[in-house]
Amino acid sequence: MKLSMKFAxxxxxxxxxxxxLSAQGPGGGPGRGFQMTEDDIKENAKNTAETLKLxxxxxxxxxxxxxxxxxxxxxxxxxxxxxxGPPAEADREAMRSKMMKMRDDRNAxxxxxxxxxxxxxxxxxxxxxxxxxxxxxxDRPQEEQSERPDRGRGRN
Length: 156
Prior knowledge:
The chain has helices at residues 2-22, 38-51, 56-83, 89-113, 116-139, 142-146. By secondary structure, it is an all-alpha fold. The protein is globular, with a radius of gyration of 16 Å. The relative contact order is 0.16. Residues 16-33 and 148-156 have low confidence and may be disordered.
């Protein structure tokens, strides 16, 4: 149970990073919020291996999939930062769509590596994370949901 929660929390951070890129609120902009590191990705892959009881071969493949996903996310994040200023609504929707496609591609790679039982458990954990994130968002005060105060690196 403890490993499952650790896996869920680490995965949630990845999802939060993706959401941060794809769903900037009013006043939001590129480069805000939490940013994963390669060490975080490696730790997540290790937790995934433990939670899903992966073989060494599977664990190596999952790490490779996660690192590829991370690198693609970094490229997209950099493109967004280079665009300057908050993205227009159409740009945010296009980014969201692109991130969802990248996530679906990553999940397809997971499915190719994992056995059916492991993949089913992976999907269940993903769904738990989504539900938890929705619950956390709904628990926030309404004003926090609609506005994002300036914060973060070097912002006043």
